[in-house]
Amino acid sequence: MGGLCSCCSNSADETNLMPSPETRRRQQLEAAERRRHENEHRGIKDLERVRQQQLRSEQKQRRLEEAERTATGPSTLKWQSN
Predict the structure, then answer these.
(1) Which domain holds residue 56?
(2) Verdict on whether the full-model pTM lies above 0.85
(3) DSSP class of 11
(4) What does the alpha-carbon distance between residue 59 and residue 12 come to, in Å, rounded to a whole number?
(5) 10-42 confidence digits (pLDDT tens)
(6) Quick check: is 77 in a domain?
(7) Where does the record place Polar residues bias (predicted)?
(8) Confidence (pLDDT) at 69
């Protein structure tokens, strides 16, 4: 009879399946951060290469802007024909 009662009642381990709200909140935050990180890097195999390409693109844009500024400013070169 004792075997029948022990399987029908809830043990102490079964009643405490839900973690505390703080633990649950922390786990949800960790899972959200992990999903965000995975979504940011989806499809990118070489992250360092992408960063280098972005840096080169920014440098090229700065050089173009600098060239435009100097072209519209006062010219220091003068053309002379003999």
Answers:
(1) 21-70
(2) no
(3) P
(4) 64
(5) 555 555 688 899 999 999 999 999 999 888 878
(6) no
(7) 9-18, 72-82
(8) 81
